[in-house]
Amino acid sequence: MAYFVPSALLAGQAKFDERFQKGEWRLPDSAAINAAAKAEIANPSLTEIRTREDRTVYAYFPIRQTATSGSARSATHTGARGDSLSKTLSWTTYSEPFSISIKQADNNVFSFAEMYAATLQNALINLIAGIDAAFVAALVADKTQVNNGGGNGTVNSDDDIYEVPLSEANYFFQNAKQTLWYNLFRGPIVGIVDDKAFGLMQRLQAQGSANATNYGFQFAGMEIMGTTRTVLGTGYNGSGVFFENGLVAIIPWIPKQNRKPLDPEKAMTYIGDYGQINVPQFPGVNFAIHAYGSRADNGSYGGYTQDVTLEFEVSLDIAYQSAPLSTLRGSSDSVVYGVGQLAS
Questions:
Q1: Would you state the pLDDT for residue 6?
Q2: Cα–Cα distance between 276 and 61 in angstroms, integer?
């Protein structure tokens, strides 16, 4: 006798609730997208005049001239004429493709909508992580090689990093602000810092005006964004890149055809459709999405032999741009400053 063995439930299946899934679906570092959402780029039309991926975009700016100081007035004085330079903006495309079977959900604990939402979220997380890594790398590569010093730190000319001595660790951010001030960047400061520097910031910010020693004053006029990425290498007990707010931006761009909602009916055809999506955490930044359908045998992938595979791709073009400078202080000058806290 089988004793009801044939009808036994061999495997119990349930879904973890949304809260329990947060460990798997953690958002990555996103300083880059945050910067894109907040950036006040000098001319918003830069994205509008780029009508297609292969169109070159130039931006122009006037430049300073070297001093021609005199010591007396003259009736026949002459002087240097003004000048300008151009900057070519360069966009990089970041994309993440994924696919889904329309019949796989017919025999699965997850619905089609849930499968689509999960795979789309996975693609967006991968995309954001890639853009953020590229943004931090671009900042580090862009750091100035012309630093006049200032504060209580010294400039390591081999690595082009302003180094704060161990004795000044409690004033790391004040010294970072001071070297920018000394180099005539005196507006609000943005810092992208590694985990060690971010932890130092949290400790120092907690020492406010009611404590015996006040370290919190140094954060006035500073916005610090933390990243888990190594910024200036592992040789520092905290490091970051700093710049005056508004002088560094990433310019997001998607093709003109994508600047509308995706039509789900067209998306299921072999021609497909273009659209855009946004992520609530990053208002103002739209991601491009493209989709099309094709006949497929998905029997080996949880679907069915007579099936349709929907192919998706989410993408975003990013142009990193710091405020351009002339060669008045040297060809390797930049608005970005690298600052490291020495461990000994």
A1: 54
A2: 33
